[in-house]
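Handout, section 3.2

Students often ask what a structure token actually looks like in practice. Rather than define it abstractly, here is a full record for RagB/SusD family nutrient uptake outer membrane protein. The first block is the sequence as you would receive it.
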Amino acid sequence: MKLKIYSLVAAAALTITLQSGCKKDFLDKQPFNQVTGDVAFNTAEGAEKLIAGAYGGMYNDYHIWDYMVNGDVTADNAYAGGDNPANIQIDLFTTNSTNGNVGRDWGGLYSNIKNANEVLENVPNIQDPALDANGRRNQILGEASALRAYFYFHLVRLWGGVPLILKSPTSLEEMQKTRSSVDEVYAQIIKDLEYALPNVRTTAANKGIITKGIVNALLAKVYASKPNPDWTKVQQYADATIAGGYTLLGSFDQLFDGAHKNNSESIWEMQYDGWGGPMGRGNWMTGVIVGTGWKRFCTPTNDLVAAFDAEGDVIRKNSSISFRNVVTEGWSDDYWSKSNYPYINKYRNDDLANSYIIRLADIKLLKAEALNESSASGWSAAATIVNEIRGRVNLGVTPAADQASMRLAIEKERRLELAFEGHRWFDLVRTNRAITVMNAQRDGNGNLLNYNVTAAKLLFPIPQAELDRNPNIR
């Protein structure tokens, strides 16, 4: 069996190839993260290589780095910092279709989808009895389905309706698909996750592997993010996640000290062991947000620091932000004094620092939100969860005492708890708060930042390269 592959990033090359009658040569090429050469994936070992490729493809710019730019720089948690024009455009809401990050993220996520599709297309056809021992074939297919759902979850939140590519295109017509609606994309995400849930393993020591806890957590987040949230489903899947044996780590700071990887609170975690480790994967993102010698990226905002201070949230502030004197550095900054300059502190273990995709506090606060939104009296039950999260960092009980005030209390709690973990922008968008919050942003001197956010700026533009190669995507 020959592995079927495709690449949306290389659509232009495919167009030329198809038109010249050499389709087979192009389609038979191996992807960059698979074994090179003419390999037949017709054994259980081959199936393992395919799913390893799907996981390995996540070690790209999007999942290592851009998730924070998209989730925190776009929002009110971080300024772009540095001198990267693509990041600065995203920060200032001047992003256009030629933005480098936009093209890179689109291509990276569709490359991830390609890898998942290769598993889903090829593994069912492998005739190796060893693959069915202990249900491993179904596990692999469930993991690939969950991964594909996760990648589309990012695409739909960043771009809205996008093309649904669910199999390897074999023609120009299949390559140049139109955009599916937002509802259609969410329906496919849920379908993939519902398929995955009964098939994936219950637990895994390595929190980078898809488990039932991850699938339940993703379903909770998906149902909360749909244009019409289903709060009953959010609570159902949040409860299922919480019942999966996860517990809050006693110390908030231990989540980020590098000595507690894959801990009891972690649900899904990117795994790094350094460039010389068994995986050979170092988290290079830490080097671009912390350090000296040049101006680093993703600088914490004045507004976020003020939010920590207003809450008296010393523990989470110190775990999230480190202030340093950098007056000798040869660069300037529009927002901060260099004598007391903030850096992100959650990824402090050099290139060994793991990063959380989902952790329990996120899901608990999502359950609190579901309780609050389900009824006018739900705020009281939600308060119990919010106070549990606050209690870990020695904060008193929330003063929220009705549905409206609890809604804002949960929003604030999610911001302070999950800062720099890539969630803030998506929270603001799904709660219809992005325009109000961002247009009220001020610098440290109280001057409006004039982001002028409109509904049209809540989504990324389709990359120009995609517009050029696919006339049906406009």
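Discussion prompt for tutorial groups: The chain has 20 helices and six strands. How would you have guessed this from the sequence alone?
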